[in-house]
Amino acid sequence: MLIAIDHVLSADDVRAFRRQLDHADWQDGAQTAGTLARSVKHNEQLADGSELAVALGQRILRELAAHPLFISAALPAQIYPPKFNRYAGGGTYGAHVDSAIMQIPGKQLSLRSDLSATLFLSDPDEYDGGELEIEGPFGVQSVKLAAGDMVLYPSSSLHRVTPVTRGARIASFFWIESLVQDDGERTLLFDLDQSIQQLTPDTQADDPRLLKLSGVYHNLLRRWARTR
Ligand code: NI
Predict the structure, then answer these.
(1) Strand 132-136, strand 128-129: pairing
(2) How far apart are CA 157 and CA 138, in angstroms?
């Protein structure tokens, strides 16, 4: 499932992020790529653990913790500390699949990447190119969202960022280990949860049909979720 989550950051937040990121100390992204990805990765990143990356990353995590659509879609067990990248001057990232297991920096913890997230911090009119292209069962989907919006997609999918030929594309990206590893099961839970949410305003809270649907949701989640 590929899902766009609007307004993770407000316009004011995006402006505050950009004031700091536009003058940040960007480093060659190839340093942190795996052997296979190194030859196709041409971008810049903020150093992991830098004061700015940590502060902005924590801000993003706070917003996500209070975002019902994100929680419903991702069912997060663990979230990788958000990273930041910048593509300009032809910068691109060729087709790749993200690593399955990520070591969380500074911790003796690893994370299985079930979902990949890109939070756009540049508006589409600021740059040409820079589309995130994701291969899925129905072909390639091209994603370029407003600043402050985020896309979630299965980490198992082949994806790429097309060359940025004008301006700069700044984004945050990170991975989520979900309580429900299987994308198909997670998608069913998401669809059921969203349908229940949409029925709720027009239905009495004690309506037995709503109670039953809600019970089915929780009992499927109980069946499929893996907690530590
Ligand atoms: Ni990737």
Answers:
(1) unpaired
(2) 12
Q: Are 45 and 84 in contact (CB under 8 A)?
A: yes
Query: Domains of the chain (ranges plus CATH)?
Result: 3-178 (2.60.120.620), 183-224 (4.10.860.20)
Give distance in angstroms: CA of 122 to centre of ligand 1: 18
Burial 104-142 (b: 16+ CB within 10 A, else e): eeeeeeebbbbbbbbbbbbbeebbebbbbebeeeeeebe
Token look-up 């969202």 returns 145
Compute the distance between CA of residue 113 and CA of residue 102 in angstroms, rounded to an integer.
Answer: 7
Structure token digits, residue 202: 């027009």
Whole-structure pTM value:
0.95
Residue whose structure tokens are 């700015």: 52
For the chain, percent of residues with pLDDT exceeding 90: 88
Residues whose beta carbons lie less than 5 angstroms from ion ligand 1: 98
Taking the CA of residue 198 as centre, how many other CA atoms within 13 Å lie in the half-sphere pointing to its CB?
6
pLDDT tens-place string over residues 45-57 = 999 889 999 999 9
**Which candidate, 124, 216, 104, places its Cα nearest to that of 169?**
124
C-alpha to C-alpha distance for 59 and 34, rounded to whole angstroms: 28
Q: How far, in Å, from the CA of 45 to the mean position of ligand 1?
A: 13
